[in-house]
Amino acid sequence: MPNLLAQIHKIIYRRIRYTVTRPKPPKTSVPFAGPVVVVGSAPVSHKPVGFDETYRIISVNASQIAVHAWGIDAPDITLMGFNELQGGNTAAVETRRVLTGHRTGALYVLTWRRGQKRQARVKNNLNSFSYCYRDLHVVGRYQRIALMHKASGLVNLELDAETKCSNGMIAVLFALYNDASAVIITGINPHSNGHIYNSANLARKHTRFDREILIRLLRQGYPIYTADPQVAEEVGLPLWQGDKEPKFKAAQ
Fold first, then answer.
1. Are 46 and 230 in contact (CB under 8 A)?
2. Residues 233-242 pLDDT 10s
3. Is 31 exposed, middle or buried (0-12, 13-18, 19+ CB in 10 A)?
């Protein structure tokens, strides 16, 4: 009973706070003039057909290591969870290891608690493994709730791991909300385990909800594709063929 009451209190508090504060979704500091490639860390990923300098790259956590093989030194944008900056779990430790001494363009750090939102704290953690960026943005819970609400119509209060989406899906929503002409995902497979940058074969969280969001976005008419044939077959996303589709956006 106490757990149920605590859950009800959390739902009411977050719903009221979201309604009253009316937060704005995060905006991109990198203009999107063409397709946006969202790169995750699943062990298998592919450079999209037709990839050239007009595409923008958003990497998730340590997934930028995958685009080094494409001749890309730094992604245009990186989305990274705050836990990756100081967490002691295997995934966080490995993220810092492979990103040490690397850089990105715009860095968006996703936080979950108030104390994590202090930019000085975020910067100190980034400095500890010499990760460089052009500009830094801290994105809190209620900005993410607003992002999903505006892009998909869902109000997701991030109550637990089962009802949260992954950072990869946040990157997809971010690109769609900021008017990417097409969003092409690679290295994001709700059915896979493991990460390209380590051999720990860690299980993935949020897989069910990620798949549901992808299907929902597709049914709403968003220009969302995958560069990975396996994901196209298993999830039902259209495979990117290199044709730069005219920009359109589902009705809000």
1. no
2. 988 899 999 8
3. exposed
How far CA 119 is from CA of 138, 146, 200, 205, in Å, comes to: 7, 21, 31, 27
For every residue of 91-142, which 3-state class applies, written as one string? HHHHHHHHHCCCECCEEEEECCCHHHHCHHHHHHHHHHCCCECCEEEEECHH
Distance CA 65, CA 175 (A): 20
Count CB atoms within 10 A of the CB of residue 155: 13
The number of CA neighbours under 13 Å toward the Cβ of 249 is 13
Threshold 0.85, pTM exceeds: yes
pLDDT per position as a tens digit, 113-168:
766 667 888 999 999 999 999 999 999 999 999 999 999 999 999 888 777 888 99
The type of residue at 205 is: K
Within 10 Å of residue 86's Cβ, how many Cβ atoms? 15
Q: Which of 89, 98, 93, 124 is nearest to 109 (CA)?
A: 124
Q: What is the pLDDT of residue 143?
A: 96
Please report, as a single letter, which amino acid is at residue 141.
R
- The pLDDT tens digits of the residues spanning 218-227 come to 999 999 999 9
Contact 171, 239 (CB under 8 A): no
* Exposure class string for 109-120: b at 16+ Cβ within 10 A, else e: bbbeeeebbeee
The angle subtended at Cα 161 by Cα 159 and Cα 163, nearest 5°, is 60
Kind and range of the H or E run holding 34: none
Long-range pairs, 115-123, Cβ under 8 A, ≥24: 116/82, 122/82, 122/85
